[in-house]
Amino acid sequence: MPAIRKETADLDYGREAVEYSPKKKRIKRKKKNNNVIKNFKNSTMMAITFALGILIVYNYAVITDKQMELNSLNQEIETLNNDMDDYNIALEGIKNTNSVEGMAKAYLGMNYPTSKQTVFVDFTYGSSETTEDEIQTAQTAEEGNKNILVGLIDKMIGFIQ
Fold first, then answer.
1. Cβ neighbourhood burial of 157 (10 Å; 0-12, 13-18, 19+)
2. pLDDT score for 111
3. Could you state, in order of their start, the residue ranges of all structural domains in the chain?
4. Segment 107-122, tens digit of pLDDT
5. What is the spatial distance between Cα 161 and Cα 154, in angstroms, rounded to a whole number?
6. Which pLDDT value is given to residue 84?
7. Of 122, 114, 121, whose CA–CA distance to 146 is shortest?
8. 111 closest CA partner among 150, 140, 139, 141
9. Residue segments in the chain with a per-residue pLDDT below the cut of 50
10. Cβ 109 vs Cβ 158: under 8 Å
11. In angstroms, how far is CA 126 from the centroid of its own chain?
């Protein structure tokens, strides 16, 4: 024991005894909860931003695809218009009466009719004992024998031309 020992006396001066205890540290749960909420909000915002970015890129891809289809259709329209112009030019050459006449003479052997090959028809109203048609058929039958030789000569001349 120590050589000098002091004894303390507890003197009560009329006060109640108050127990003093060391201050307990509070656990800050609110702060942790706030951090979790902030992390969740940030993650959600990043996910939404990423989804919107993907959506924008997809829409640009669709727009580009439609633009390419439009360009291909415009090119097809242009080629069809060019083909139509070519056909119209070829058709104008075919519709020319001089070329039709030349083809008829060259390939089909056609010529203008001679005066002996023409037949005149009378369309007068009324009937007589002998009709004009009967007279003409009788005359053509008589002339038919004479016309065979003339017809052969005409055909030969037509082939020569």
1. exposed
2. 82
3. 32-95, 111-161
4. 888 888 787 877 777 7
5. 11
6. 95
7. 114
8. 150
9. 1
10. yes
11. 67
Tokens of 26: 């509070």
Which residue in this structure is represented by tokens 């008589």?
A: 142
The three-state (H, E, C) secondary structure of 89-120, written as one string: HHHHHHHCHHHHHHHHHHHCCCCCCCCCCCCC
DSSP 11: -
- 125-156 pLDDT per residue, tens: 665 555 566 666 766 666 665 666 677 777 77
Q: Determine contact, residues 116/150, Cβ cutoff 8 Å.
A: yes
Q: Six-digit token pair at 2?
A: 């120590």
**Chain centroid, CA 132 distance in Å:** 67
Q: Residue type at 82?
A: N
Q: What pTM does this model have? A: 0.39
Q: Cα(64)–Cα(87) distance, rounded to whole angstroms?
A: 35
3-state secondary structure of 31: helix
pLDDT of residue 120: 77
- The token pair at 50 is 């990423």
